[in-house]
Amino acid sequence: MDTLRKHWYDMAGIFAIIALIGLIFFHATLTNYQLLMWLSLVSLFLHQLEEYRIVGTFPGMVNKVMFNSELPDRYPLNTNTSVYVNVFVGWGAYLLAAIFAEKAIWLGLATILVSVGNTVAHTTLFNIKGKTLFNAGLATSWLFFAPCIVFFFKIVYADNLIHLSDYLIGVPLGIVLNVVGILKLITWLADKNTPYIFEQRNLLPQDRKK
Question: Fewer CB within 10 A of the end CB, N or C, for the chain?
Fold first, then answer.
């Protein structure tokens, strides 16, 4: 579990590469919707890689900017919570949406709403609160999440895939994933004495120990 806490986002990058290679070879056997859902999963992997590795300062930003924490390396978001939010909730939901595809349009809609929530938060909330123009996760939100969001609605309407029941289930589930699966988990698992501490590189530059 300790290895997972330290390297799940690196695994996400590897999984993204594997998934893209698989799609290159098998895309002809997939429907447009199936292809989109697998690309949506890849977009999540790449988004997480940007947040925690490539730029890497997402944990510190959340703790300091959003929660004004005096312990930005561990409170309220810590490495253990990150696994629950990103791996168990994030990977789980997006992977199931790709596997079930047209059999569960409502689940695809719910995950797309998570992508919408991320894009809105990274574009507006984080930048306004942090008084910045860029934050860890913004680039992949627009490069990958945004196109998936647009094409989701284009495909489900063009192919008559979505129905009222999908909205009645998918929209509430999407809200639950955004609020409970992300925000509430962070506060529920918050612990100032946690041993699950982020590395200095995961903090904003001004919060790193000299």
Answer: C
